[in-house]
Amino acid sequence: MLTKQKIKKQFGRNICRRCINKSYNVSLLNTDCYYNFPYPQKCPCCNEMKNIVTGFRLSGYLKSIVTKNTLNETE
Ligand SMILES: [Zn+2]
Q1: What's the gap in Å between 67 CA and the centre of ligand 1?
Q2: For the chain, which residues make up each domain, given as ranges?
Q3: What is the pTM of this model?
């Protein structure tokens, strides 16, 4: 299951939605996520100014459950 704790553990901090989708092979929508509004910040993954995801709504969690995680589990 994809969690923000897992993302922080891997990247050191929160990253943007596009990088989450790419890194974890998920297809989260804007409405699936919480952001640290109001201003975009530099994403540590793609180095672009993006809205950084700080958490997932229930719909996002459900997607992360049914989506296969392509990364190696470290736990
Ligand atoms: Zn990014």
Answers
A1: 20
A2: 4-66
A3: 0.79
